[in-house]
From TrEMBL:
NCBIfam families: ilvE_I, PRK06606.1. Signal peptide: none annotated. GO terms for cellular component: cytosol. One of its GO terms (biological process) is L-leucine biosynthetic process. It comes from Alteromonas aestuariivivens. One of its GO terms (molecular function) is L-isoleucine-2-oxoglutarate transaminase activity. Acts on leucine, isoleucine and valine. It is an enzyme of class 2 (transferase). The gene is ilvE. InterPro entries: Aminotrans_IV, Aminotrans_IV_CS, Aminotransferase-like, B_amino_transI, BCAT-like_C, BCAT-like_N, BCAT_family, Class-IV_PLP-Dep_Aminotrnsfr. This is Branched-chain-amino-acid aminotransferase. Belongs to the class-IV pyridoxal-phosphate-dependent aminotransferase family. Keywords: Amino-acid biosynthesis, Aminotransferase, Branched-chain amino acid biosynthesis, Pyridoxal phosphate, Transferase. Its cofactor is pyridoxal 5'-phosphate.
Amino acid sequence: AKQLAEYIWFNGKIVPWKEATVHVMTHAIHYGSSVFEGIRAYNTPDKGTCVFRLNEHNRRLFDSAKIYRMTIPYSLEEINQATVDIIRENNLKSAYIRPIAFYGDIGMGLQVPFGTETEVTIAAFEWGAYLGEEALKNGVDAGISSWNRLAANTMPTGAKAGGNYLSSQLISMEARRHGYGEGIALDRNGFISEGAGENIFIIRNGVVSTTPKTAAILPGITRDTVITLLKEMGYEIREENIAREAMYLADEVFMCGTAAEVTPVRSVDGIQVGSGSRGPITKQVQDMFFGLFNGSTPDKWNWLTPVYK
Ligand code: PMP
């Protein structure tokens, strides 16, 4: 793989990027048997480089593993420490961090032998705005996908598992093919679910709505952050089913995720949303969100974990 940093944390050791390799018979490659996280660290003025919501992310990693009955042979505290260590070891100021636990070269059987432990690696590297700087400012054109998000009784979308990302790839490939910046899926009931890698918010008449956890979403940590920040600003938030046309009729739409951060949506299916550019409440949310990292939003919630101290 393209070398993105000097070192990777691999099964308890820090190894050079090029040495962090697995065998082609790795179970996860064949069957998608991995759970992972995407975390960001930001360079803050007061506390230097800080990991954002470290414990919540790695807790979700263990939650995802629990759903699939996977045994991660480290504690949450060890993984939290390793996450900080690998940023420091690579001397990064800001970073995208990718912890992943997966079944390795454990044989060809689909069924995992009882007691099998996962392998774990954590990569950290520099990564800019996922949908582009331009998108953060002016918004993306999104399209509703012809692919539905996984139905609740097929595969659990609440687990951040490798296999789920085949669904995300179909959604985003189709979107790009039709010239959209990102794709949004409906759930099996026909309501808005989520983007390929982002949760969705819509705003009309000052009321903010987001999809409920029952709408086949990954309950995003950025979603939770945004809900908290909006409440702090005094907005009412509804977690409710959102019909496709509600996106067309919204004054503002935005999507959010660790990679995408808070990105405005300026059109859906080619229909202009509101004024067709970033809306005022979306801008407020962005300012408060990025304010956590530039010092203008006080970190009341203890969301920042310093890397260098
Ligand atoms: N939904 C999906 C499918 C995702 O991959 C992500 C990114 N992890 C999100 C939502 C947003 O989650 P978070 O804010 O925790 O990154």
